[in-house]
Amino acid sequence: MDADATEPSGSVILFFFGLAIIFIVTMFWIAVSWHRFILLEEYPRGLFPTFRFDRILAYLGRVLLIGLVMALAFVPVSLVAATVGASVLSLVLVAVFSVFLFICFYRLSIILPAAAIGQPLTLGEAWAKTVGSSGAIVVIVIAAAVFQFLIQLVISALAIVPVLGALLALFFGALVLPMINVSILTTLFGVFAEGRELR
């Protein structure tokens, strides 16, 4: 068998790369529109919400920024864990630090809805506005994790149904789960950045 025949062609790779770009832009479009709908009460003027390229680009930039910060923050603990070796101590260390990073992520993540509505915040401003929020964030994260686990069970159950099950699983996995996280970020921004009350 010709080895080249089993390798994907350049056009196929470009197709899937383009598809991935479209998917990412669409997800960010939905996220930005949802933030603006909740925080600014900006309603769609037609069938679809307004495509705000500048806000989507700003959103993407801040996602990359937070990802970079989280990756850099995890480097020291990874080095320590590697030095200690595979042991209970290293596992506990990584687990505790991971929880700390989760809290840090949600504290910093209010820069995302801020970018979506055109009221940018720096990381320092986001950190300052969420002082004392760790307990609330832990509760929110736990509740979200439980809900997402239940959604995953639904997705797994639907996946066994031919065609329709796959489509429903794709709907829940690609839209419902991300929207839960987007709604959490919107709520955090509203409460800690704008001083809104939970209702």
Number of helices: 8
Taken from the alpha-carbon principal axes, the silhouette is globular
Helicity, as a percent range: over 70%
The SS-based structural class is mainly alpha
Beta strands, count = 0
| Biggest β-sheet strands, sense, barrel | none
Beta percentage is under 5%
Low-confidence stretches: none
Explain this structure.
- The radius of gyration is 20 Å and the shape is globular.
- The chain is an all-alpha fold.
- It is 78% helix and 0% strand.
Concise description?
The protein has 8 helices and no strands.
Features:
mainly alpha, 199 residues
Please write out the topology.
Layout: H1 3-6, H2 10-40, H3 53-84, H4 88-108, H5 111-116, H6 123-129, H7 134-158, H8 164-193
